[in-house]
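protien #1 (seq + structre)
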Amino acid sequence: MKIDKKQLLILLAFFSIYFIWGSTYLLNKIAVSEIPAFSLAAVRFLTAGSLILGIAKILKKSLRISIKQLLNAFIAGFLFLVYGNGVFVWALNYIDSGFAALLASTQPLFVLLLMRLIDGKRMQIKSIIGVTLGMFGMYLLVSQKGVSSKEGSLFAIIVMFSCVLSWSYGSIFVSKADLPKNFFVSTGYQMLIAGVFLLAISFGLQETWVSPSLWSLNAQLSVIGLILFGGIVAFTSFNFLLKNVSPDKVSTSAYVNPIVAMLLGWYVLEEQLSNQSIIAAVILLTGVYFITSRKRL
């Protein structure tokens, strides 16, 4: 079976959002342990956005953007990177990276519900089963005494769910919005806009800025990984997929991200997962399977 160029790009893009994004939970957890969350996100996206647009210019891609496209890039940048990512990373101060990835695995549930609300279509039986399993899995996940008893953890969990909702709506919005046709250029503008927004938030909260030369080697490597791989490679792949594949298919990265994040969190940071978390993960991912394996309307 011959695979054309576009199919190959789609496969590579899925690999990117499955495995690279799975590792970003660990990288963010390491970085945010010594770098304030919003300054971390600002540095990450301002740098990645500048590099992306610089590369696009070298490749002689048009950087033109209309007022409408600029407004849509602002909305997308806020939904994905300012709230969906920046605030999520802040919450990692109170939650283990593997556990956070499990919370983020609820994204397909939110995407499905939002698509049904926006498009006004009836939910299929498989979808109903998937949502029911997902809700039950979420309940098991957040109702654990060991989790809810940690200072700030319950609020952080609520915040993380709102971040997942923001990212889910952003996925649907971008799939329909008028943005620069070149997904590389579109990604660059979203990152630059989000970076400026996050910079303002950081200064508004009076976060302490420390020279990168004073960061530990682990923090420096984590930020470099977040910029080059989590930002330029994975987020560009994500924007590409949203214009070429259904948003609910793109959200299937929730299958793999938690597994990658849990394994890395366990191996590198010695994070522990309770039996209830493992059971909740199985139920959640089973719900995701039912949602994404349903027949298309």
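ok now protien #2
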Amino acid sequence: MTVTGAQHHGAAGLTSRGWWWWERRRSAVLDVGLGVVSAFECAVEGVTFAGQAGVPAAAGVVFGLLAGVSLVLRRRWPIAVVLVSIAITPAQMGFLMGIVGLYTLAASEVPRRLTGVLTVMSLVGTFIVSSVRLRHGVGTDAGDPGPAFVVLVSLFVSLGLTAPPVLYGLYIGARRRLMESLRERADSLERELALLADRAEERAEWARTEERTRIAREMHDVVAHRVSLMVVHAAAIQAVAPKDAAKASKNAALVGDMGRQALTELREMLGVLRSGETKKAPVAVPLAAVGAAAAAAAAAAEDGPCLDELETLVGQSRAAGMTVELVLEGDVRSYHALVEQTAYRVVQEALTNVHKHAAGAKTWVRLAYRGGEVAMQVENGPSDAGVADAGLPSGGNGLVGMKERVTALGGVFVSGVTDSGGFRVSCVLPERAA
């Protein structure tokens, strides 16, 4: 059976905040208890007031009960409770209501100017009632104690009933607001930390993705180029073995050398990866992931190939039967390790594509050393129709990988078919990595 919100409120007195306007049941029990005590106090004092005013005692009791029980409303309407206590002060009733009402008023979010006005009204009312009682009730055979005594005692009584609850209420209100402010700041810091953790995780994921992409490019460059040359030499061995055993043996030796070089480069790459894994700390995983990726990239750049090895790279293609011409322009100089490695890999991948798709075509490799940059170009002419394709598999990622390498360093990469039917790959790299 489903109970609606109105039925639930009418049956149990509950709201979304708790018990009526109380947030906790303990607060409701406390206020109801204070209201009962205040009603009993005002009822007893109402009997005395009825006798002095010449009205029936029952009327004084009912009046005291109605006035005293209003203390239950102190959290919801603190101003009304204080006004009631001020109104019944001339009847010498509601001392507990006045003290508790002033405390609640000072601790609440009521504007401080209004709190000050009500406090002064309560102070003046208590002072006047105390003065009247002292003038009529104090006296000795020696004579009247004098107005100074009445004023001092009345002031002491009024301050004693007004100042402590107001000051304590102000303290509790300020402390409550401070705690709420600290709680809000803690929640804000928690949200900021969660946001920073999410961003760190995103950076770590980005670093892992970049590292996987870099590894894929390196593996592609190393394996594709070496294996392509090995396949070309293997085909040459197959063709010349029945006719020229010496040349076949020479080609076989070249295949072995290339295989060993490929294995060496793969071992170096795996060694960099293992060293990057051992440097990862178990704490602060996102930062460790970013640091490991950067360290692995830097180590790979330091241990990777450089521009001085281009002559050897071109010589390997010549040994495989390709006609390659290497042209160097400008004064030979050194660049950043990552820039030289990227330039080497671009030339390597371009030559690999020539082996795959334009076997037998004449190829030109141009390298220009400049002040703030290095430029390279690999261009091949058209190949014979019979050897247009060496039959090597292609993943279609060679040009994409070259462009990613170059643009990651802030360089420019251009590739496309030439007017003569060949293919040209050109790129310009800055002196240092971007």
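Residues 128 and 393 are 107 Å apart (CA to CA).
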